[in-house]
Amino acid sequence: MYFFEDFAPGDVFELGTVSVTMDQIIEFSETYDPQPFHVDPELALASPFEGLIASGWQTASLFMRRYVDGLLADSACVGSPGVDEIRYHRPVRPGDVLHARVRVLGSSPSFGRSDTGIVKPMCELVDEEGRLVFSMILHSIFERRLTREPVMPMSIDPVHPARSA
């Protein structure tokens, strides 16, 4: 089980691989990003990409699945306040096999919440040739091992504000 204290700058977590198929690209894109170069192999040939490519949102989702399966499922992660700098460095194509990893850039205790801290990993997908295809800087909230109390949403007692959590 990973807690806030288990992450230090420079730590790298290898999260495994994911294969991308044409059917997956088309199915995702027909539902969420139906641009011709994502849903129609023939029209995609005439696009600047010269072939079918995955939606950037699908690429981010592929990473996220590896992050959950490879790390978060065995952690005390309780959410995220956001993401910075999403980048799509290279198109993802049918047949690509992508490797996911996170590299910890830093961490800090949560402001006003002594029971959690925020870990800031650089998230990456690389292709079989080691070329970066996707990156983002994520902010993940983890419970602190020292408290071991469940993280509960903050509430305000409207009658007695001083008694609020």
Automatic annotation (TrEMBL):
SUPFAM superfamilies listed in its UniProt record: Thioesterase/thiol ester dehydrase-isomerase
MaoC-like domain segment(s): 9-111
InterPro entries documented for this protein: HotDog_dom_sf (IPR029069), MaoC-like_dom (IPR002539), MCH/BMMD (IPR052342)
CDD domains, per database record: YdeM (cd03454)
Highest rank taxon of the organism: Bacteria
Coiled-coil ranges from the UniProt annotation: none
Family that this chain belongs to: Belongs to the enoyl-CoA hydratase/isomerase family.
Protein name in the entry: MaoC family dehydratase
Organism: Kitasatospora cathayae
